[in-house]
Specification:
- With 112 residues, the chain is mostly helical.
- The protein has one domain.
- α1 packs across α3 and α2 crosses α3.
């Protein structure tokens, strides 16, 4: 592998780590002041889905702290492999939950 390819890979890794880390950290920082309201809002949002509130509420409470921890670790470059191993299922979980609510399509393009 030549020097340019190595530099491209390192740059891509750093940019992805920074972008993902910043996004997750900011999500984890803005929610704690109204954590209970956030969790209750998630339960209300998903009341008409297959996900029961008894699962959604604790997930929402824990989500904030997982986002903050993973985001901070990624931004600082500490234990990045472990942070990515924890962060990947976190993003998959959030994606799964959003799909159950049909929120993966922009509201502008929704049919109903």
């Amino acid at each position: 592998m030549d020097t340019r390819e190595v530099l491209d890979r390192k740059m891509a890794y750093c940019l992805l780590r920074f972008t993902l880390g910043l996004s997750m950290l900011m999500h984890g920082l803005v929610r704690p002041p109204h954590l209970t309201a956030f969790a209750d809002g998630m339960v209300n949002l998903f009341h008409d889905t297959l996900l029961p509130g008894i699962i959604v509420h604790p997930f929402a409470l824990i989500l904030v702290f997982r986002e903050r921890a993973v985001g901070l670790l990624l931004l600082l470059g500490l234990w990045a492999r472990w942070a990515l191993l924890i962060g990947t299922p976190l993003i998959a979980e959030v994606g799964f939950i959003l799909v159950t609510r049909d929120r993966f399509i922009l509201p502008l393009f929704r049919s109903s």
